[in-house]
Amino acid sequence: MEEASKLVNCPPVDAEPASGEVFRCGKNNPVSGADMQTHEETRRAPDADPCLRRALSVFRSRTDAEHQILLFRRWRKKFIFKARLSPQHGSTKLTSGRQPSHTSWWTADGLSPERRAALFTMVETIES
Amino acid sequence: MSWPDLDPFERPSDELGALIADEVLYDFDGPCIFTSTAPNGGKLLVYLVEELEELEDDRRLRHLVATTTHGIVESLKTGTTTMRDALTAGWLWVCDSTMAGEVRRVYAPPLDALPPDALPGNGTMLWPHLEPALRVRLVGDEVREGSIPALVLAQVGEIAKSLKSVFEYSARGLLQDTSGRPPEWLRSLYDLRAQRVAYGSLEISFQQTEPDQELDVPDPAQSKPTRAIVDEGWDLLTRGLDWATSPHDAALIAENDTERKAILDALKRLSPNATGPVCVIEVSGTRVGGGRSPRRLDRKSSRRVRKTLASLGARVTLNALSGRIRDLDLDKREFVLREIPGQPRTETLCVVDDEQHLEIAKEAHYQELPVSVAVKRSSGLRWEVVDIEFGDVSVLDS
Fold it and tell me: B213: which DSSP letter?
């Protein structure tokens, strides 16, 4: 964590203060802190971009979240959660690539995985 | 459903190499679907099945790894192959790795040993924008791979036209005469292209072409935006599907009988016939409910649709004529039928929607051949061609 905290330009300079609705899928309702950990926190993909490892993926579009549940039926089944972000929750940047509304969310310092989870409420269940 | 004991299927852990991503196809909290290269140089498709959480201090990622080709990956990207089909097209392994990406275990179980939800849902595409606007699955005892009755294909043709009535209704303010063939700009809004055909039963995925900014819409500054026409058309169809598949015998909610008839005409084309090889048509897609389960239109739904259509009491006039095609306007797809026997001065303006009918009309016009035409008129001035044949009409005496 100390090493990551030394990153410059992370979040990127073109990231914007968090705002608006975001969606994320999960297996457990209510969503848990474990479901809201960044790669840096889970030590996943150590060779990936260190700044992106500090971000959580979210969707801006509910349709993209619905598609994800059908695509990953074990990993992401079966709940869609929604949160309304505001600047105090960190910053975001559209990092769409091939998924139109994919957004990276750099959570604010001190916003623990549990507190991130508390921002989300379940809005849809999809049986796939 | 839990995983079976995979130990009997274990393979050397280096069989697939380090599974380093060559091209990431889907990224969410890291690469979830990507291509990689096997030690023998072959192309691999890697798909994240789940995070195994049995051991708190030893979380692992479980992937499916399938042999693949450049062609399959391209088909995934264009939406002509589903993710499930791509994964099951070749050899398949189950691979467990640490969160840091180090491969620990590799198994090669048979496909039928996998839990059903280890694979993506049937028909699911790689990316959301590739999901079909409308997907229909025609189900019946006689509808089997390698033995699809031709009648079923005819039904698919009808389904492809199902949006016509609701889009015409949605664009009602822009059409001077709602009878006959709709203008090209409107046709392009509800034009469905077959994106994928799959067998088992018969499943057709339709993609809708995006409305073109340069559509020749009359008075575009004043008119309803084409996006609004498209959205209203699909909303009407979705409302109709909800009604036709509802377990309750409620009335179809509509603003007026014209809207109600537009919805019912669309449903009539989408529903199975009273007899014939197809008894159920499952309907799903991004424009008719997105992620929700497919709606099942069965023969009970068909009866409900026809009964309600009949109750509207819409008047349709049918006529059978013969004569020669003297004026043919290919842009408007209209012709004037003249020299009608017994009616020397009569001219009948006919509009042609069907491509086959238009070909016959062209041939008859260029070769100066007599034709027999069955026409109908529900409203407006023009007669719509229902059928056309070479030769004089033969009228039975009653």
Answer: T
Instruction: Determine the longest span between alpha carbons in chain B, in angstroms.
Output: 93
Sheet of B31-37: strand order equals B10-11, B103-107, B92-98, B60-67, B43-52, B31-37, B23-27
- Other CB atoms closer than 10 Å to residue B149's CB: what's the count? 16
**Which string of DSSP letters, residue by residue, matches B162-195?**
THHHHHHHHTGGG-S--SSSPPHHHHHHS-EEEE
Q: Which residues of A touch B48 (CB under 8 A)?
A: 72, 75
Cα separation of A1 and A43, whole Å? 10
Chain A positions touching chain B (beta carbons under 8 Å): 38-39, 42-48, 56-57, 61, 63-64, 66-75, 77, 97-100, 102, 124, 126-128
The Cα of A22 is separated from the nearest Cα of chain B by a number of Å equal to 14
Chain B contacts of A98, Cβ < 8 Å? 25-27, 126-127
Complex confidence, ipTM: 0.90
Q: Report the pLDDT value the prediction gives residue A111, as an integer from 0 to 100.
A: 95
> In whole angstroms, what is the distance from residue B181 CA to residue B349 CA?
12
Contact B274, B170 (CB under 8 A): no
Over chain B (398 residues), the average pLDDT of each successive run of 10 is 91 91 91 93 95 72 96 94 94 91 92 93 90 91 84 87 87 67 78 82 82 59 72 93 91 90 93 89 88 85 92 80 88 82 74 86 90 82 86 56
Q: A57 and B124: CB-CB below 8 Å?
A: no
Residue A122: which residues within 8 A CB-CB, separation 6 or more? Answer: A29, A30, A31, A79, A80, A81
Asked if B393 and B194 count as a contact pair (C-beta separation under 8 A), the reply is no
Task: Using a CB–CB cutoff of 8 Å, tell me whether B56 touches chain A.
Answer: no
Residue by residue, DSSP assigns B231-270 as HHHHHHHHHHHHHHT-SS-PPPP-SSHHHHHHHHHHHHHH
Q: Which of A43, A57, A102 sits opposite B100 (nearest CB)?
A: A43
Strands B202-208, B290-298: pairing is unpaired
Contact B226, B167 (CB under 8 A): no
Nearest CA-CA partner of B124 in A128, A77, A79: A128
Q: Which residues of B touch A74 (CB under 8 A)?
A: 49-50, 115, 117-118
Beta partners for A90?
A107
